[in-house]
Design a protein that fits this description.
- It is built from 6 helices and 9 strands.
- The protein is an alpha+beta fold and 190 residues long.
- The chain folds into 2 domains: 111 residues, D-amino Acid Aminotransferase, Chain A, domain 1, CATH 3.30.470; 65 residues, no CATH class.
- The chain has a 5-stranded antiparallel β-sheet, with helices on both faces. It has a 4-stranded antiparallel β-sheet with strand order 1-4-2-3.
- The two termini are 16 Å apart.
Length: 190
Amino acid sequence: MHKPIMRKKQFVKLYNQGVFGNHSPTWDTLEEFLRFKYQLDRSNYIGLCHIRNRIANGPTWYNVPCIEVEHRWKQLLKQGVSANNLYISLMAPTESTTFQGEVMLGIWGIELLYTTVALPMREALQQETKSARGIIASSLLQYFLDVNDYEWLMTLLDNFENHVVEFSVYDHCWGTLPGHRMVVWETRAY
């Protein structure tokens, strides 16, 4: 059993360490990202990034071209955003999203808030939000997740009691761990 995750900054530190399993490639600072960006540039990678916020429910900036991250980061600093609150991830392949949501163990067993809209989760849940619990929630998760991802999700729920796990599932493997289609975005105490 792990300690409760009460603050987003606490979560981000553990997230970067891989404690929650498969996740988006992520850099803690602009300097870390720029060291890696050199490798991206050499491989002619032209993908997108996501400038994320360590403040719970704070603004987030999707679909930033990797070549514009440094400029956008510096603009945010000029607007008064603290660099200590920002971190960078590669943008997930949202167009390939099959299922995403938030899951927790509640008094009725598994409780699930979900969507099948292929957008970043915040936007997708604004467009469509469904809920399920108990055996229906478990059945949905088993249908949309591969066995290894489902088992990992259940392990997170067991190890982080009274926490919500945010996740997305894609139609192909993506993230920091080979063989996984599910990416964990956040684990937080409720």
